[in-house]
Structure formats: C-alpha cells, structure tokens
Amino acid sequence: MYFLEDFNNFAFMRTQQSLIIIFIFSWILLAGCDEELTRTKWYPNPNGDSELALLMREMHDDVLLMKKSVEAKQVPRVRIDHTKIFTAIPTEQGKVESQEYKDNGKLYLQAIESIRKSNYKNARENYKNVVGSCISCHRSVCPGPVDKIENLLLEEEV
Ligand code: HEC
What we know:
By secondary structure, the chain is an all-alpha fold. It has helices spanning 2-39, 51-71, 93-97, 99-116, 123-141, 146-150. It is elongated.
C-alpha cells in the first residue's frame, strides 16, 4: 500500500514537472517570436524610433491609401497632418536643419495641398507629384527608405 501511494505521488510530481517544463518552453518560444517581430520592423534604430520616423510611417500609410483611391479612379483624401514634418523630432537633428530638407519639405507640402484639392481629372497627376517629392527629399537627405517608397509608385511608372 505504502509503495503504491508513493508511486502515485511520484507520477503526479512527474506530470507537474512536465507541465512546468512545457510552460517554460512555450514562454521562451513566444518571447523569441516577439523579438523577431521588433527586429523585422522597417529600419529599426537602436535608440528607439524618433517622432519623425513614426510620422514618416504614418505618411507612408496615408499615401498608400491615396494610391488605392487613385487606382480605383476615386479622388484621394489626406487623412493625417503632413505639416508635422517641420516640427517632429528626428533621430539626428542635423537632418531637418539642412537647406535640402527645408526646400524639399516645402515642395512636399505643396504637393500634399494640391492632392487635397484635386478632382477626378488631376488626381492621378497630383498623386505622382506627392510620391515624386517623397523620393526627391529622400534621395538628397536619407536614401535608405527609397526602395520602400517606390512601392507607392503607380504601375505605369515602375
Ligand atoms: C523633406 C524631406 C522628406 C520628405 C518629403 C519625406 N521624407 Fe521620409 N524621411 C526623411 C527623413 C530625414 C527621415 C529619417 C527620420 C528619422 O530617422 O528621424 C525619413 C524617414 C522615412 C522612413 C523611415 C521611417 C522609419 O521607420 O525609420 C520612411 C519609410 C519614409 N521616410 C517614407 C517617406 C514617404 C512615404 C514620404 C512621402 C509620403 C516621405 N518619407 C517624405 C525625410 C523626408
């Protein structure tokens, strides 16, 4: 009898142990997955993402929605405040203080204003100007994301 009880206890402990081991393993796997996600984000930077970098991603998403509208022959809408390119804090302060950034930034905001006011006839042209001005600024101050931006080009331009 004693022997049986001991054996039962032992078996119970074994199950508990395996459960704990399984738990720890899945936890490690899940945590690894999380890290994977943060690592595959666009252009991660070791100091965390700057305000300007986050704004740029929102701009990218906004313009992607405009692309969908243009492709569907609808008039695109501007959903976010693009003028923040002149106030958002960048990763490197020098980047936004340069004359190239200021000049390109002005042209970009003009392109955004034109697309805001566009109609069925000129939406497509105005859209191309927006993406063109993303690319010109990037060619002169921050060439890294150009590939990513090129996915905003319309089929006919690629
Ligand atoms: C006036 C110059 C300028 C214009 C216009 C501009 N960018 Fe940027 N962009 C920058 C700078 C500078 C950075 C680097 C920001 C930082 O690291 O703080 C950047 C960063 C980015 C990034 C990387 C963000 C990240 O995850 O680190 C993407 C993507 C991007 N821009 C897309 C766009 C798109 C799309 C447009 C047009 C809709 C655009 N940019 C217009 C200057 C510009």
